[in-house]
């Protein structure tokens, strides 16, 4: 078949067009060694004396440093090799590099064990020097860190270095990972943090031994702070509040001014169970570890880290990496079962709440951070090393690169069993040949690096494949810089036993940029510690000058800002380390702008003196809720949270008819109900009732004030429930009515209720007979989650007797799930209050009151989005000022691993699958499109022993999805509940019904369990105070504690604006179960914590 020239021309156009389209589609192009002339590989040779069993950091990899070493304004590359020679490559343009390692004298010791590399101008001569760290189980003299001082270029333009670490006091023989230079004391010169690690694995220690070791300073293994004085560095660690003990497994340090006070702080990532540290500069030459005050939880095996302002709010956020895989198979192969005894031991030893996953800590600007890694989509990247935030697509938002991989799956559960059996068979008599045999049986795996696109600060999208980064290597150190000078950031990655990853960025001219080069003061020419703020169109970006970041590496010192389609920047501000400020206005884009410290001005630092909306007050009520000595997982291994850890219940009402609200708190097992009467001056005085003391064996799960006996004062209905060590027929599960004597003292009635645990209780006059009736929810049956006692409707006979309404009770039990809250409200304007129920594994359910008879409505709000969730609470307001009912409903939130949706809901299958007389609740959720059980193999077999023959190995279980697990075990008795909706929401009244309006992302970070509606700013519109959290989840889920108290200011039209935490003044920690407001004062009830009190500041 012949083609005319015309058709050949069309085919050529189509071919070129397709290729062009494909090129544009890929953000990065991977360049081969033959294209760049960089033939470096970090080769590791396993041998009897060099392997991961003898040195656990064997596969931790090498680093990358990107900087201009010869002053030609092109960025060069230095690479560290663990066992061979380091390499320095000069940039010759157009991604061509020249190896000058030999002539430059920068190869380091030929042999183990080189680690991190730092590019720094150590002597402020304008030439970049190189600091190389050493570690490994070698002799001290072969483990001394090296400082290659740049002596300038030879006649060929090649930089020549000489090794001078000893002359500067930096030739440490510690087990070092990385050196970080910064000016911690603001004396104008650079000091250094040396990140070290213990070369031996961490044993299980008791509390006393741990506390002793933490106090012992160990220079060879512990973190060190070096202070520079006249070009010499002195170790001053022992004089500071910095932990330099042998319990150090440091893998990353993040330098930043976390609290915006102009002084440099730092975060330390520690491997194993050793806690991380957040050291805040006290501005007096020392640091304070503020980790536990600032962060509710951290990564368990914390590895590399990075800082950046990822949501462009002017506060620096933090990312720490861990080793949780993305896919189910590797999760089940590598993840150990939850060990609560060890976890508790670590907490008692002073460690923090640590969980195996990446953590993205959002800086709230008030000294606290909210962890949102799962919600933002960056929690699971496998065995990860370098985290690097940078704007790779020039859209004005910081994207995220994560290097990934470990040559051997050292934590593979089948391998650990094999190794244990191998050693037992050898009677622990192991020789070097046996060691190699063990290593050869250790599984190998290659996993891909990850790159995520920042979606305007709301979340991150995995674009690894579409951006051209996906490749299966074992990668470690990484760095970025504009290697070809085209206005976008290229990427260099150090791989094990493979060529480096060299990724050319292809943004080019599609989006604009601004690059900032800083020239600092005489002893800090790099201006390390400076912050650059870029302002445009009412928005801002912030970056700090700390080139040593990520993992073992140093990025380009030229700060890079993507600005999208902008042609000009409104203003550019530099806050130099010594407090001076430089400002440039109306700055053109697509250039490198150089700003010099000598042109900066001294400006008065005006600190804000504005009061926060709320201020914490002393707990004058002296109340602490208690849940003692209980671990629900010992009773039901497959629970996903501990039902015992609920409460306290806090309510208010006028108990003595003085028109002032009084306070009632119902506590945990062994705590009596407590009453405080408000006095004339607004203070509270406790009122003791002996019957409360007599009935303190149970757990209060609900309180409701209403006039039971129609004598004009408020009586008290108390729901008793709880999980604890109760059984289905425990005496402690019987509800009670307490009659008010008229002054706030209560007497228990003789009414005996069934031993059926209850939860929330809400009253109304259901049948309009003038006597208040009450709905009471059934609570979880102890030991049988998620089965629950029946809900009930109790009618008041007019004499104070509450009698079960059988018909209505049957109706309110038509709903499946565990009722957590209830609301009586007239929805259809017929003058009768209707009932709305919300709860766990159930939809938002409406029962219309039809002349005293409740009738369940099918999908009353006409949307699938109000279907099954883990609903916690419901309140009523009028947020759009239309005179009609609006609803706010608190749900679990989206900051979890479940990613639940209509097509991919979280599910629970429950039955007595192993026929041993107890309930087996199997929770499952979707991972990469398929539903899998949450439980590990050990946890499933611990509950369901008969499956051991079905799953003889971890590999066999790792391949099993939910359908395969339950295929032959589901019977007609098996119940299946689903929860596709996890978002907290508003139901806004409209002319034709209700409109769903999801609450802001800040609210979705945690379970929403308590709501206060109030006009906080006195503008006539209803505002919201929202709290919650859940702290006692299964360990693989972890604490969900990202909400420190959120305030939403309403505009009266149904929209809300989040008040920044540093303006609200609220900091609630722990699990908030109840919250109310009396006289502009908040009372916050927290599980297992003291009552918190916050008062509104006067304007």
Mind explaining what this structure looks like?
The protein has 18 helices and 72 strands. By secondary structure, the protein is mainly beta. Strands 53, 54, 55, 56 and 57 form a five-stranded antiparallel beta sheet that branches. Strand 37 (568-575) and strand 38 (581-588) form a beta hairpin.
Number of strands: 72
Structural class: mainly beta
- Overall geometry comes to globular
Binned strand content: 25-35%
Throw out a few tags for this protein.
mainly beta; five-stranded antiparallel sheet; 18 helices; 72 strands; disordered N terminus; 1099 residues; four-stranded antiparallel sheet
Describe the secondary structure blueprint for this structure.
Layout: H1 5-25, E1 28-31, H2 33-36, E2 64-67, E3 76-79, E4 87-91, E5 97-99, H3 101-104, E6 114-120, E7 129-134, E8 146-153, E9 159-163, H4 165-168, E10 176-182, E11 191-196, H5 207-215, E12 224-229, E13 232-235, E14 250-256, E15 265-270, E16 277-281, E17 287-289, H6 291-294, E18 298-299, E19 305-308, E20 317-320, H7 328-334, H8 340-348, E21 354-355, E22 359-363, E23 369-371, H9 373-376, E24 384-390, E25 399-404, H10 413-425, H11 432-440, E26 447-448, E27 450-454, E28 460-462, E29 472-473, E30 475-481, E31 490-495, E32 501-505, E33 512-519, E34 531-536, E35 539-544, E36 559-564, E37 568-575, E38 581-588, E39 592-596, E40 614-617, E41 649-653, E42 662-666, E43 674-678, E44 684-687, H12 690-694, E45 699-706, E46 715-721, E47 736-740, E48 746-748, E49 758-764, E50 773-778, E51 792-796, E52 802-804, H13 806-812, E53 818-825, E54 834-842, E55 845-850, E56 853-856, E57 869-870, E58 873-877, E59 886-890, E60 906-911, E61 920-927, E62 930-933, H14 937-943, H15 954-958, H16 962-966, E63 975-979, E64 985-990, ...
